[in-house]
Amino acid sequence: MAVRGRGGAGAESSGGAGGGRSPVQARKMPLGLRGKKKEKSKETSKLVESEAPAPAPAPPAPAASASRLQFHTQLAHGSPTGRVEGFSSARELYAKIAEAFNIDPAEIMFCTLNTHKADMEKLLGAQIGLEDFIFAHVKGQRKEVEILKTDDVLGLTITDNGTGCAFIKRIREGSLMDQTKMICVGDHIETINGKNVSDCRHYEVAKMLKDLEKGQVFKLQLIEPMKAFEKLGPRSKGGTLTQAKNSKGRETLRLRTKGPATVEEMPSEAEEKAIKKVDELLETYMGIRDIELAATMVEAGRDKKNPDEFAVALDETLGDFAFPDEFVFDVWGAIGDAKQGRLE
Predict the structure, then answer these.
(1) By C-alpha distance, which of 281, 344, 13 is closest to 170?
(2) CA torsion sign, 224 to 229 to 232 to 235?
(3) Do 205 and 221 meet the contact criterion of CB atoms below 8 Å apart?
């Protein structure tokens, strides 16, 4: 995963990070990006968490209605249909699914919406349509592979389920990893050279792979999703899934890493384009894909007036990622381009 710019962690996409740069991107990088922190964040947090009678900025009704929503779910390799409710995050959702099927939550690798196939375009992200059917893919066969790193770029794009399970979302055609047929899309990366990375986020795993020394052999231990023939079970033939696929409702359940889930309208067309572009930028700079992260970043930039304010907001909510300034500036440009209708 080759370095892009001054802090990128792996160029995995074919195009450049910026696409068609907007005027705001074409300007010189502002000096002192992130230089001044806002002092209001802690006070705002205290106000939100307090039980003072003063009205909160957002009404509590959506969170309350979200807690009563029920979703149908199955294990992707075959199971009866279960129901889950009362969750606000991916971690809580996995715990509810595990409880429904009497399995360990750590066994769930990822979830897809409205398909039992390991379709990386249907991964559960930050939004769940109110009629979506959730399929949980659980750990199956383990495998171990040794690879000679003959290229700086491995050709992998990594994502994770938000609970410490990083897996392969994309393998670039013709890349080193594409030539290693044992490695497949959907595989969970459990160890790298014997080091367990099961509790690492996707950006940490991507960086470890990028930092592997060229010309050396490295070893990966992988876990692939369980296939249907490995553990047969009945699959419901009811109409719920068909209804979910044909649903035209615009409301979704918005999962959040911090705070309660809320029922919201689907993102606007401009926001959807911005989210897609930011997800592409994440791949270019960091070798990861993460729709939930991209949506959070677009949301953070919704009411910001300049890249400095945007950078401060990212540091406050996503400081663990330590995004380079070039990346933050390109994301700000993508959000601006989407607002102005310049993204296709």
Answers:
(1) 13
(2) positive
(3) no
- Please name the residue that has the structure tokens 């959040």: 256
Please choose, from the candidates 290, 255, 278, the residue with its C-alpha nearest in 3D space to the C-alpha of residue 332. 278
- pTM (two decimals): 0.71
Task: Fill in the DSSP letter of residue 5.
Answer: T
* CA-based max dimension of the chain: 64
Task: Classify residue 229 by its DSSP letter.
Answer: G
Helix (H, G, I), strand (E, B) or coil at 63: helix
CA distances from 38 to 217, 310, 334 (A): 47, 11, 23
Dihedral sign from CA coordinates of 291, 293, 295, 297: negative
300: nearest Cα among 311, 291, 287: 311
- Report residue 187 as tokens: 């595989």
Q: Is 62 exposed, middle or buried (0-12, 13-18, 19+ CB in 10 A)?
A: middle
Strands (E), the chain: 70-75, 82-85, 108-113, 127-129, 134-148, 156-160, 166-171, 188-192, 195-196, 217-225, 251-254, 262-265
Encode pLDDT of 178-237 as tens digits: 998 899 999 999 999 999 999 899 999 999 999 999 999 999 999 999 987 554 443 333
SS3 154: coil
DSSP characters for 289-344? --HHHHHHHHHHTTT-SSHHHHHHHHHHHHGGG---HHHHHHHHHHHHHHHTT---
pLDDT in tens, 89-141: 888 999 999 999 999 999 999 999 999 999 999 999 878 988 999 999 999 99
Asked if residue 22 lies in contact with residue 340, where contact means CB atoms within 8 angstroms, the answer is: yes
CB atoms within 10 A of CB 31: 7
Q: In DSSP terms, which residues pair with 6 in a beta bridge?
A: none
Q: How many CA atoms lie within 13 A of 326 on its CB side?
A: 15
Exposure class string for 178-197: b at 16+ Cβ within 10 A, else e: eebeebbbbbbbbebeeeeb
